[in-house]
Every structure is written in structure tokens, then in C-alpha cells.
Amino acid sequence: MSTATVQVIGGGLAGSEAALQLASAGINVQLFEMRPDVMTPAHKTGGLAELVCSNSFKGNALTSAHGLFKHELLEVGSKLLKLAQKCSIRAGESLAVDRVKFSELVENAISSNPNIQLVREEKSNLDSQTYTIIATGPLTSPTLSHWLMDKIGKKSLAFFDSISPVVDTDSIDFSHAYYKNRWEKGDTEDFINCPLDEHTYHLFVDALTKADTIEEKPFEKKELFEGCLPIEELARRGPQTLSFGPMRPVGLMHPTTGEKPYAVLQLRAENREKTLYNLVGCQTRLKQHTQKEIFQLIPALRNATFARYGAMHRNTFIDSPSVLDNKLGLPGTRWFFAGQLTGAEGYTEAVATGLFAATMVYNDMTNIKDFSWPSESCLGALTKFLTLPNEQFQPMNLNFGLFPRPEKLKKSQKKEFIISTRQNAMKDFRLPWE
């Protein structure tokens, strides 16, 4: 195979998967990891693929998006998921691992591979003509972050992740919701409105004020700013703060009855297909199970399926749709991006984008023209979301709302359609070096 060396920056999930995949294809790889010489505020060790937030890769059931995703990755030969299975621990239907053992297995696989050179140093600048996969994660070092800002544009790199929850459109109860723009501005009805009466509103606010939040990490403290406060913090400032703020009902009278609600939670489309809607102004530090309990107090969301929960934390990510091409590459360079730096949220997603980047680098190096990931596949659906134009881009994990499917199908048929079309699309799929 080629004697050229690919540089992979970052020894997390994405970088480790990319390095192992390229090495298996006969490509020489230099894998750069700055830890333990330069630590992040969140990592505890210098081990490769250290799992920081939890030890779970989420569900295994093929009827769930995450289960289907893992099944797909194992089908095509994910290196890290196979290692995860070797050190799994009992966790119901989820794939959970002994995180120390998992890191050890990954590091052994990297260190023992003759095609991989592990370099323990911080990489602070890159050659645009050297094939490089940048997978430095949400805590990319300040040195490399500032260097990237100079190269791709300061506004293209975000450092504070303020995310509202996202729900599946099919799970919204439209007997308690209606489409309308405030004061009916615009040519189309862009917002779904979830009205609350006075009693329900105060139940909602009371629940927010009493809820436990996730404690800030030391590197996240004092980063909140007035223009983007957590919804629970706004609620604690007074019982009417939300009704005069993000939940104000002005200009949102019911289109049929003409009645003005006491308060309104607005939902805004998250994607072009409008299969997903985010809860406007609901960025939050609440724990995920608490978010579900509280937001389901709103009548229109009582059966809501959450595709993404809200969050507020430091998270370095690229505005991928405005910067990267459909190969997760930076035009004019030989740089490809992977992991949470692309806006792909989650462990499985990090592994997957590492695999994706490896295939794109291999294709470019060997001038393969006819290889692509099917849009009906899990990885195809995720990377399409990461690269299609999106003015409201925020990090996202894989969910059924990202898959293409006919609009006219009944709700119960859509998941079956997605699972079936994915299976057919991947039936004869092979990695480019196989």
C-alpha cells in the first residue's frame, strides 16, 4: 500500500478508530496524543480512548437508533466497538464497559500495531498538504483551537455549547399545539406553539425551580452570560420571568379560537425535513431524566420523544455545515475531521465519524471515485446532517429523525421503513480497502 503517512491528531474514540482502520488498510499512521504531558480539565489519565462522561455506549436494541447504529458499525468492522464488547459489563439492554479495561485494550491494539506510531506530544500546527484527521474532541487544547481559528475562521469554531432539547415531530400532541409565527410574520408557519394555561404554567415553573441541576465542572464555571441563561435559572428569578421572556404569549393567539394563552413554549424546526423540533429558549443544566419529566408537564409534549437533551457546557466544535464538505474535509487542504469536533455528539458517533474519516482519507489517497456511505445508513444520515446547510447548527447524536423517509407514512410505519431501507442499503456494502 501507499508509503505516505497519515497523521491522526487525538487519541480519543474517533482518533483511535481512524488510526486502527487505516492501519488495517496498510496505511502508515502517526497518532498524536498530548496526554499525559498536557492534560485536559476533564480527563483523569493519559490512556487512549478514555471515557470521561460515562461508561455507556447506550442501547443495543435494533429498534433504537443507537442500537441500530452499533449493529451497522459492527457489520462493517468497527475496531473499537469490538473491543468494547470484550470488556462489556451488565447494563440491561445497553452496551456498558469497564472503562479502565476498555482504554487498556485500545492502547494495546494501537501500541502493538506495526503500522501505527504513537507520538505523545501536543500538535499545535498542521501542514495542509499532509493527510491529517483532526479528532481532538470537545476539549481541544487552547493552542490548537486558536491555530484552527486562524485557519478556518474565528466564527466557525464554538466554545460554549448552549443547547435546547430536541423532540421528534411525530411525538408532539397536536391536539394541544398549533402552527403559527408570532404576529403571523413570514410567508410560512415556522413555529409549533405549545400553549399552557395558568395552572400548568405555574406547575412547570415550580418544577424548574426545585429541580436538581448538573454541577458545573471547574472549567465551566462563570461561563454563563445574560443572553443565554439556563431556563431553570430564569425561572428562579421570579414566577413570571418565563411568561415575559422565552414563553411570552404575545402575538400567538390560537388560530381557531382566537384565545390568548397564558404562556407558550415555541418549537423551531431542527432540520429541513422538519422531523425534529427544538424547544426554543430551553437551554438547560438539568439532568436528562429531569428534563424529560419537567418538559412532559407541557400538554403538547406529554408523550414527547427526545432526540437530544439540553445542555450548557464548554464544547469546542466546528460549524461543520458552513466549513466542511460532504467528506468532513476542509476544502483546499488534506485535512479531515472526526469526533465531537464535527458536532457529532456521543461515544458511538465519535467512533463512527473516526471510521468515516478513515474511509474518506483512503479514498482520496487512492483516488477512489465510486465509494460513498448510503444516505439510508446510520452513518450516512449522521454525516448528511453534519454537512448540509444549517443556520442553527448545534451538536447532535444519531436519532431516527435524521433518516430519509416518506412523509405520508404513519408514525408506526416510519421506524420499520428506516430499519428496512437501512438493511437493504448496507446489504452489499464493503469498506473501500476490502
Overview of the structural elements:
Helix 1 runs parallel beside helix 10. Strand 12 and strand 13 form a beta hairpin. The longest helix is centred in the last third of the chain and has 20 residues, at 347-366. The chain has helices spanning 13-24, 65-76, 79-86, 99-111, 142-152, 198-210, 231-236, 288-295, 320-323, 347-366, 378-387, 411-425, and strands at 5-9, 28-32, 56-59, 88-89, 94-97, 116-119, 132-134, 157-163, 166-168, 178-179, 191-196, 263-269, 276-279, 306-308, 311-318, 335-337. It has 434 residues and is of the alpha/beta class. The chain folds into 2 domains: 5-161 and 315-425, FAD/NAD(P)-binding domain (3-Layer(bba) Sandwich), CATH 3.50.50.60; 166-309, Elongation Factor Tu (Ef-tu), domain 3. A 6-stranded antiparallel β-sheet has the order 10-11-12-13-9-14. Strands 6-2-1-7-16 form a 5-stranded parallel β-sheet, with helices on one face. The chain has 12 helices and 16 strands. The protein is globular and about 70 Å long. 45% of the residues are buried.
Provide the domain count: 2
- pLDDT below 50 for ≥5 consecutive residues: which ranges? none
CATH class of the largest domain: Alpha Beta
Helices and strands, in order, run as EHEEHHEEHEEHEEEEHHEEHEEHEHHH
* SS elements, strand count: 16
- CATH topology value of the largest domain: FAD/NAD(P)-binding domain
Give the biggest sheet. Answer: 6 strands, antiparallel
Rg on CA atoms, Å: 22 Å
Measured as a percent range, the helix fraction is 25-40%
Gross morphology:
globular
Q: Helical stretch count?
A: 12
Strand content: 15-25%
Structural class: alpha/beta
Average per-residue pLDDT, rounded, comes to: 91
CATH architecture of the largest domain: 3-Layer(bba) Sandwich
First-to-last CA distance? 13 Å
Strand order of the largest sheet: 10-11-12-13-9-14
CATH evolutionary superfamily of the largest domain: FAD/NAD(P)-binding domain
